[in-house]
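User: Working on a comparison across species. This one is Adenine DNA glycosylase from Flavobacterium subsaxonicum WB 4.1-42 = DSM 21790. Can you predict its structure so I can line it up against the others?
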Amino acid sequence: MEFSKSLINWYLHNKRDLPWRKTPQPYPVWLSEIMLQQTRVAQGLPYFLKFIDAFPTVHDMAAAPEEQVLKLWQGLGYYSRARNLHATAKQVAFDMGGNFPDSYSGLLQLKGVGDYTAAAIASISYGEAVPVVDGNVYRVLSRVFGVETDISSSGAKKEFTALAASLMPHKQASAFNQAMMEFGALQCVPKNPDCSICIFNRDCVAFLTGKVSQLPVKLKKTKVTNKFFNYLIVKDPNSNTIINRRGDKGIWFGLYEFPLLETESLTSTEETIALIKAFAPLGFTPKGIQLLHPNVIIHKLSHQKLHIRFWEVTSDAELPESIDIEQVKTYPFPIVIHNFIENNWD
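Assistant: Here's the predicted structure for Adenine DNA glycosylase from Flavobacterium subsaxonicum WB 4.1-42 = DSM 21790:
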């Protein structure tokens, strides 16, 4: 089986027309790879276009305030990626004269750039023969070659990297890596792939042995924690409200939110109203308290399941540091709060 030749030929005939593929320059390649970590292309593409429009060069991004970067990123999740993106832009622009390192080892020195991203940039932009290994690569290699190693085990990455390296044509590193990722995204998909049209169905071990749904093997499961958030939408006589910046630790750090009352479980309406009345951080005695929607909003993160309710809390007095809704909309929020604002506040 001429795996690499067949794979690259498939890629050349089936690859999607994506803007970062039009140039091997490291800036758009880096930007796309950071965005597409844990994000599908269909979701990430509009964000890529917004960022390129706002920041045509790495210098433009470096000169922007972090809040602008976070606001544009709003909705992509995993906000540490956005902060690392901004930090790396400043590192490249201010410390490296706007030039990205031109090797895999050099790229690894950039903040937020790990093995996968460094390998992608090094191979696509500079032709360096370094294999990429991500979920798509694990899936393709484990199925085609029948590798039953648990991909969450400590030695899996080394094993799959070695296998990918052994298959890579050194003069076609860029095409090979992109083909591997594209094949996993379009053909060898996680669930119910159409193996009848797969170019490897005569040789694929998983297909021939009926193990497509069992590979890749992943035994370690993520423990999910439930959290219960009550956001307090304060309104004073001028219809102004209060927002706070989250601290520098935990989820969504550095983003903005309404005053938050967190409970250990899902409390009743009566219990929650009593807790809001006694909630010292508000700094005033509420005139009225009202639940703004009947159903709890469920928001799932990688390690947490958030149970969210929004409450309107009115005040008789004007509040210091309160702002109007148009100002509120300019701040970066977690997407669940942003959606609430967009859908409930004219």
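For your comparison, note: The first helix runs from residue 3 to 14.

User: Helpful, thanks.
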